[in-house]
Amino acid sequence: MRDHHGNDQGFTERELAEIEELNRLPDDHVPFLQRPLWRRVFVAFSLLVVLAFLVPIFALSCGGNGEQAPSPAPDSASGLPAPEFQLAAAQGGLVSLSGSLAENKIVVIVFYRGFF
Q1: What is the DSSP letter of 30?
Q2: Cβ-proximal residues to 30 (8 Å cutoff; 6+ apart), any chain
Q3: Spans of all domains in the chain
Q4: pTM value?
């Protein structure tokens, strides 16, 4: 079926010119980023990204032998035991250092500035 311009299927002159240009491309035409070299570069880059995520995970899971790292050189605050204390917990109630150390090997105290 032709329109009033004599075009098939109602294409404009510009669209017909683009279709003809695409039809004139050789059959072996491969877009630039789909060429074998760029596909290899893409695969190599993807492997590097995956390894960047997997190597630290593997190192952490297999590399630890249970030994502690040596402590830093003593200064004015290191090596001194923390005094016994009680603090208000975020969920309510009190938390003491001795109670936390009885349940856990390591205790980390985080102070938040501001209100929640």
Answers
A1: -
A2: none
A3: 1-30
A4: 0.31
Integer Cα distance of 37 and 45 in angstroms: 12
DSSP 53-83: HHHHHHHHHHH--SPPPPPPPP-SSTTPPPP
Pairwise CA distance, residues 64 & 106, whole Å: 17
Extract the tokens encoding 87. Answer: 């603090």
CA dihedral for 77, 78, 82, 83, sign (positive or negative): negative
Residue 1 pLDDT class (50, 70, 90 cuts): very low
So what's the pLDDT on residue 50?
94
**51-69 pLDDT tens trace:** 998 988 888 887 655 555 5
Q: How far apart (Å, rounded) are the C-alpha atoms in residues 81 and 89?
A: 22
